[in-house]
Design brief:
globular; Aspartate Aminotransferase, domain 1; seven-stranded mixed β-sheet; 399 residues; binds pyridoxal-5'-phosphate
C-alpha cells in the first residue's frame, strides 16, 4: 500500500459517489448513448468556464489535437512547431496529421516553450505552433502570438493540463485555450477536470473553425453520409459528459486545494533550507552548481498545479531522490524522462541529432510529487520530511 500516492482518484465523499450513481442511472435510462444533450450542456458549460465562444466534446485530449490540426488543413509537407519537453501526444498528433514536428527548446523558469528560440525554427513550410501549458501554467502567449501573427501561422494551444489556468495577455488576464485558433483540453482522469475514462474538448472563438471541426468529429459527413472532407470518430462519450458536468462545478474548489498544497510545500521546503525558488533568470549553470532543490515559479496569474515539479541539480540526485521516496512509499513521477526530439520514433527528423539543452536539462532533473486536491496535511508533512531526510544522504553521491 502506497503511503502517499502520486494521485488517489477514489477519495470522493459518499455524497459525491451518490451523485455519480444517480447521474449514471439517469444516463442508462436516457437511451442517448452517442452525443446528445449531456454533451451539448457540458460543451456550453466548458465554453463559459474557459471564456471561449464555442467548444466541442471529443474522445480525448490527443484527438482534440489531431482534430484541430485536421480542421486547419494541416498535413503533408507542412511543419508544425512544438516544445520538445511535453507529453508525447503533442508531437504524435503532428506526425499523424502528415506534418513534420519541429521541436523548440523550453525555458527553465516555467518549463514552457522558449519564445526567444521560436523564430529560428520558422521556415516557409511552417503552418502552425502548438504551445503547451505544461503542468498547469500557461506559456508566454503575450510573446508567442505576435510572432505567430507576423509569420501568418495558426496557433493551437495544448491546454490538456491547464483547464482554468490564467495568463497575462495584452494587458488582460485570460484563460488557457482562448487565445489561439484552437484550445485543446484533456479529461484524462489525472487532469484537474478528470473523467471516469478518456475524454477531451476543443475550444475556439471562430465559428467557421468550430463548424469544420464539428463536421470532422463525425467522419466529415455533412449532411450525414455525404462527405466533402475526411474526418474521424472523435466524439465525446455522453456517459463521460454526464459525469463530468457535476465535476466541472467543483473544479475551482479542487484547483484552490492544489494551489494551497503547493503553497504549503513551498513554505515547508524553504524552511528546511534544502530548497529554493526558481527565479525568472535562474540559469542551468547555477542549478548545476547549487546544493538545492528548486521549486516551481509562478510566472502567470493562475497556475492550476496539475503537477508540482521539483528540479534537482543533477540526474544522479534526482534518481536517488526518486528511489528514496519510492522506498518511503511516496508516489513520484518523472514528467518526462526523454524529450521528444530524442524519441526513437522521431529519429528520422533532423532534430533528433540537435541539442535542445533546456529540454534535456529538465528531463534529466525534474520530478513531480503528490499535489492532488484531497492530499492530507499529514501526507504533505510526511513527503517533506522524507525529501529532507533523503536529500542529506543524496548530496554525498557523485554527480
Ligand atoms: C500536454 C498533453 N497533451 C496532450 C495530452 C493528451 O490527452 P489525452 O490523454 O486525453 O489523450 C496530454 C495528456 O495526457 C497532455 O498532458
Amino acid at each position: 500500500m502506497t503511503r502517499v500516492p502520486l494521485l488517489d482518484l477514489t477519495r470522493f465523499s459518499v455524497d459525491e459517489e451518490q451523485e455519480y450513481i444517480e447521474k449514471f442511472r439517469s444516463f442508462i435510462r436516457s437511451g442517448q448513448y452517442i452525443l446528445g444533450p449531456e454533451v451539448e450542456k457540458l460543451e456550453e458549460e466548458c465554453a463559459t468556464y474557459c471564456e471561449t465562444k464555442y467548444s466541442l466534446g471529443v474522445s480525448s485530449g490527443t484527438d482534440a489535437l489531431l482534430l484541430a490540426l485536421m480542421a486547419l488543413g494541416i498535413g503533408d509537407g507542412d511543419e508544425v512547431i512544438c516544445p520538445s519537453y511535453t507529453f508525447f501526444a503533442t508531437a504524435g498528433c503532428i506526425w499523424r496529421s502528415g506534418a513534420k514536428p519541429v521541436f523548440v527548446d523550453s525555458c527553465l523558469s516555467d518549463y514552457n516553450i522558449d519564445c526567444n528560440k521560436l523564430e529560428n525554427a520558422i521556415t516557409e513550410r511552417t503552418k502552425a505552433i502548438i504551445p503547451v501549458h505544461l503542468f498547469g501554467q500557461c506559456a508566454d502567449m503575450d510573446r508567442l502570438m505576435p510572432i505567430a501573427e507576423k509569420h501568418n501561422l495558426y496557433v493551437i494551444e495544448d491546454a490538456a493540463q491547464a483547464i482554468g489556468a490564467e495568463m497575462h495577455y495584452q494587458g488582460e488576464i485570460r484563460k488557457a485555450g482562448g487565445i489561439g485558433h484552437f484550445g485543446c483540453f484533456s479529461f484524462f482522469p489525472t487532469k484537474n477536470l478528470g473523467g471516469f475514462g478518456d475524454g477531451g474538448l476543443i475550444s475556439t472563438n471562430d465559428l467557421e473553425l468550430y463548424n469544420r471541426a464539428k463536421i470532422m468529429r463525425v467522419h466529415g459527413g455533412e449532411p450525414k453520409y455525404y462527405h466533402q472532407v475526411v474526418g474521424g470518430n472523435f466524439r465525446l462519450d455522453p456517459l463521460q459528459a454526464t459525469l463530468l458536468r457535476p465535476r466541472l462545478k467543483k473544479i475551482d474548489t479542487w484547483t484552490k486545494a492544489r494551489q494551497e498544497n503547493a503553497e504549503f510545500y513551498r513554505k515547508l521546503l524553504l524552511k528546511t533550507g534544502i530548497a529554493e525558488m526558481l527565479e525568472p533568470n535562474t540559469t542551468s549553470e547555477e542549478i548545476q552548481k547549487s546544493q538545492s532543490i528548486y521549486l516551481p515559479l509562478e510566472t502567470q496569474p493562475r497556475h492550476i498545479y496539475n503537477q508540482f515539479t521539483l528540479l534537482l541539480p543533477n540526474k544522479a540526485w534526482r534518481d536517488a531522490l526518486r528511489q528514496k521516496l519510492a522506498e518511503a512509499q511516496i508516489g513520484c513521477e518523472i514528467y518526462y524522462p526523454v524529450p521528444l526530439h530524442k524519441q526513437e520514433c522521431f529519429a528520422s527528423l533532423a532534430s533528433s541529432s540537435t541539442s535542445l539543452p533546456m529540454a534535456e536539462f529538465a528531463a534529466d532533473r525534474s520530478c513531480a510529487i503528490p499535489i492532488f486536491p484531497d492530499l492530507r496535511e499529514e501526507e504533505i508533512l510526511y513527503v517533506v520530511e522524507n525529501i529532507k531526510n533523503a536529500f542529506s544522504g543524496i548530496k554525498s553521491i557523485g554527480q
